[in-house]
């Protein structure tokens, strides 16, 4: 049977149902969002669905890429609109976690099903085979669990749980749809209690809570110890529990205790009594305003986060914790070195890290093949479901290759049978690299098999293992041959900040690379695309009065970007994560962009007391309609300058690639990819198409543009707006100074509003304003504060 999803029905407009509908809208799929009719309601029968949608529109972080997408969601109720579900391709049930309620709903749904409709449940733990009891064969064939993680837009994991009757073709289709259309990391799970991620993740959380209470660790101590130095998010355990909800954690734990009677660690899933007391008080975490942590306002209005004392149940200020093992771990370069250092320490931090690591890893090893047929599914579930850097068996490999650390962690406990098996029948680790490709130990064949994954992926790490593929590497960046005549320029400075080495290789890639390649991609595999210019060098130059050096560096960046814009071969940017300041400017000078949906793009220089000076002002003016041709046709030059000013002055950053298009940081013709694993492949494919168009005479580099700018009269208007904001306390005095410099650039300085100016004219204005602001002490203070604290200073 051939499956397709063009329209979806979502039944249940709570947090998860409404967020699933929002994410479907993000990818352009319309949905019908329905819920029950409120008891006794006669006028507003869709109130519950409407409220669910409204809450999702207000959600932070945002559920929608752009609020405009909400128009793809139609609301209704299950009584009046049941027959409309006959017209959808996929029905997602996201109602309360009660089997009787789901059964009653399925009976109604089955009465209107079309022959090919897909039915799924978003349950987080109810068994699939119990959900389909009493349903027809057709219903069972088209049913599976699609377990999204919260928040739906941001959490990558999607667990698929089929029953024995689920059509294998449907499972394959949903796996592909989830990966390529929804952008999820898909894991196929066995029909066991709470599947993979929650089974292992909640065990880890509960185990840690029991240790913390028994051994006297505080909430913030635990989160500090088991955070980034153990390859986990900063939220670690207690903060993550607050985010997901303590009641949710208890519900999953109780469900596992009831439904996994043969689990040797069953008792661990029972929430400690003191935490049950917290839940009874209604302290459920983020949703109730307090849980293990509580945010309050300080005496001067600042935000203060208190932690819960687990003995007294009083909220207290968080003390500063210092552990030698964590200090040593932070000095290490790689995650493997940080973990080994922390596990080998001799203080309380290392003790807790060892105990909880042993608990989690032994438990994971004993759950195979009960909950998954292979180790890869478990590792993917933990990385995608909890944002861990390493999966359980990747962490096992670190211990197996560090025997002394393994011995300390186990502290006399026995190796699980699966680990012994990989030592005796494998080659000592769960993963191995064979001929440049990662392989995993397959349990059924007792041999190493290549990771399958999606075929349409490009790994720069793998490509670079063949030395001849690295055309040039100067330490700051590398030019890599992706094959088919496409080169990739990869940055690898800290946070991919742009330095002299990157600028040098930009020149090389365009000038020399154009002789070897048909097109270029500028992309990388880092979490963030580029944090912009190297601010430390800017600060040092300003404080040393090295104005000639700074002027030359800024001019070099501007000319490198101009070189990209007018490159003889197509240049495609492939951003993911943050692309700020100079990173945004680089994207805006490429001929085409293939952006990850979760790209946060913006010109943020005003936040550090500067203005964009790598061509960002110029390019945003052009994209807002300041070219001489467009400005003459569309009402003159003031509107583009005003729009650009409103965006740059407040350091606007897009919340998604879609919003970046609305802000004009990206063009409407630029493309968006949802799955990070596909980004470089898609960017290369775009580059190939542009290269073919060039060879067919259908693509040429753009021609230099003239800009029509409004001049000094418009500058006075913008300056008056700044003065008004200063008088009302909305901006500081230095904000006003920066705003006036920005207004000077965007209105064209002293140019005539009827005489077009060149791109270089605007670049000169950018550079002049940037250097002038660099010389001011308050700008230098802002730069220093950001470098030291990572937070902007408002002085």
From TrEMBL:
Record's catalysed reaction(s): a (3S)-3-hydroxyacyl-CoA + NAD(+) = a 3-oxoacyl-CoA + NADH + H(+)
GO MF assignments: (3S)-3-hydroxyacyl-CoA dehydrogenase (NAD+) activity; NAD+ binding
Domain 3-hydroxyacyl-CoA dehydrogenase NAD binding: 7-192
Annotated pathway: Lipid metabolism; fatty acid beta-oxidation
Domain 3-hydroxyacyl-CoA dehydrogenase C-terminal: 195-294
Pfam families: 3HCDH (PF00725), 3HCDH_N (PF02737), ECH_1 (PF00378)
Superkingdom of the organism of origin: Bacteria
GO biological process, one term: fatty acid beta-oxidation
Record's keyword terms, sorted: Fatty acid metabolism, Lipid degradation, Lipid metabolism, NAD, Oxidoreductase
Membrane-crossing residue ranges in chain numbering: none
Gene3D superfamilies: 1.10.1040.50, 2-enoyl-CoA Hydratase, Chain A, domain 1, NAD(P)-binding Rossmann-like Domain
Keyword Oxidoreductase set for record: yes
Family: Belongs to the 3-hydroxyacyl-CoA dehydrogenase family.
Designated name of the protein: 3-hydroxyacyl-CoA dehydrogenase
């Amino acid at each position: 049977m051939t499956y397709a999803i063009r329209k979806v029905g979502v039944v249940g407009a709570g947090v998860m149902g409404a967020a699933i509908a929002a994410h479907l809208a993000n990818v352009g799929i319309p949905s019908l969002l329905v819920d029950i009719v409120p008891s006794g309601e006669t006028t507003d029968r869709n109130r519950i669905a409407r409220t669910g949608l409204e809450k999702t529109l207000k959600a932070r972080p945002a559920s929608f890429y752009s609020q405009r997408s909400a128009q793809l969601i139609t609301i209704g109720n299950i009584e009046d609109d049941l027959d409309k579900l006959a017209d959808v391709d996929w029905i997602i049930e996201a109602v309360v976690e009660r089997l009787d309620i789901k059964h009653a709903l399925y009976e109604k749904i089955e009465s209107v099903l079309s022959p090919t409709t897909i039915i799924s449940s978003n349950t987080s733990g109810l068994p699939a085979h119990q959900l389909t009891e009493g349903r027809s064969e057709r219903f069972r064939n088209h049913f599976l669990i699609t377990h999204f993680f919260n928040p739906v837009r941001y959490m990558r994991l999607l667990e698929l749980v089929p029953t024995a009757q689920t059509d294998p073709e449907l499972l394959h289709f949903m796996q592909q749809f989830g990966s390529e259309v929804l952008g999820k990391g898909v894991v196929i799970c066995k029909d066991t209690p709470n599947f993979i991620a929650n089974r292992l993740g909640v065990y880890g959380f509960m185990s840690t809570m029991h240790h913390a209470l028994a051994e006297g660790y505080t909430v913030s101590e635990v989160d500090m110890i088991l955070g980034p130095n153990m390859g986990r998010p900063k939220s670690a355990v207690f903060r993550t529990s607050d985010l997901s909800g303590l009641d949710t954690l208890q519900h999953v734990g109780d469900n596992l205790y009831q439904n996994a009677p043969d689990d040797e660690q069953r008792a661990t899933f029972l929430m400690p009594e003191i935490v049950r007391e917290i839940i009874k008080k209604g302290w459920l975490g983020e949703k109730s305003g307090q849980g293990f942590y509580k945010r309050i306002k300080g005496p001067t209005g600042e935000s203060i986060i208190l932690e819960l004392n687990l003995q007294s149940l009083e909220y207290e200020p968080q003390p500063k914790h210092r552990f030698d093992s964590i200090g040593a771990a932070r000095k290490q370069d790689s995650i493997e070195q940080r973990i080994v250092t922390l596990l080998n320490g001799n203080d309380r931090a290392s003790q807790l890290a060892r105990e909880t690591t042993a608990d989690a890893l032994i438990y994971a090893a004993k759950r195979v093949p009960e909950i998954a047929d292979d180790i890869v599914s478990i590792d993917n579930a933990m990385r995608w479901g909890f944002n861990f850097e390493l999966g359980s068996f990747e962490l096992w490999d670190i211990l197996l290759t560090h025997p002394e650390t393994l011995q300390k962690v186990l502290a006399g406990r026995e190796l699980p049978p699966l680990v012994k098996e990989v030592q005796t029948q494998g080659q000592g680790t769960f993963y191995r690299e064979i001929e440049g490709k990662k392989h995993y130990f397959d349990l059924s064949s007792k041999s190493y098999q290549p990771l399958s994954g999606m075929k349409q992926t490009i790994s720069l790490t793998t490509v670079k293992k063949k030395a001849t593929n690295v055309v040039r590497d100067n330490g700051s960046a590398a030019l890599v041959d992706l094959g088919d005549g496409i080169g990739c320029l990869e940055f690898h400075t800290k946070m991919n900040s742009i330095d002299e080495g990157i600028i040098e290789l930009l020149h090389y890639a365009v000038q020399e690379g154009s002789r070897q390649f048909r097109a270029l991609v500028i992309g990388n595999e880092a979490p963030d695309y580029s944090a912009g210019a190297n601010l430390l060098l800017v600060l040092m130059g300003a404080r040393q009065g090295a104005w000639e050096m700074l002027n030359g560096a800024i001019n070099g960046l501007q000319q490198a970007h101009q070189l990209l814009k007018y490159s003889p071969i197509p240049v495609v940017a492939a951003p993911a994560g943050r692309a700020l300041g100079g990173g945004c400017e680089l994207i805006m000078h490429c001929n085409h962009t293939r952006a990850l949906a979760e790209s946060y793009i913006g010109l943020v220089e005003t936040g550090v007391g500067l203005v964009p000076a790598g061509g960002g002002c110029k390019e945003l003016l052009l994209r807002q309609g300041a070219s001489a041709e467009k400005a003459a046709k569309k009402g003159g030059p003031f509107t583009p300058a005003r729009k650009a000013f409103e965006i740059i002055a407040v350091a606007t950053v897009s919340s998604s690639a879609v919003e970046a298009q609305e802000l004009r940081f990206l063009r409407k013709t630029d493309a968006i990819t949802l799955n990070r694993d596909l980004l470089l492949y898609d960017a290369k494919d775009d580059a190939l198409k542009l290269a073919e168009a060039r060879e067919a005479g259908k693509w040429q580099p753009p021609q230099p543009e003239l800009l029509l700018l409004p001049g000094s009269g418009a500058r006075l208007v913008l300056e008056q707006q700044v003065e008004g904001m200063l008088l009302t306390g909305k901006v500081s005095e230095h904000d006003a100074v920066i705003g006036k410099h920005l207004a000077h650039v965007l209105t064209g300085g002293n140019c005539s509003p009827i005489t077009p100016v060149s791109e270089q004219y605007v670049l000169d204005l950018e550079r002049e304003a940037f250097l002038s602001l660099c010389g001011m002490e308050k700008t230098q203070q802002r730069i220093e504060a950001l470098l030291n604290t990572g937070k902007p200073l408002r002085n």
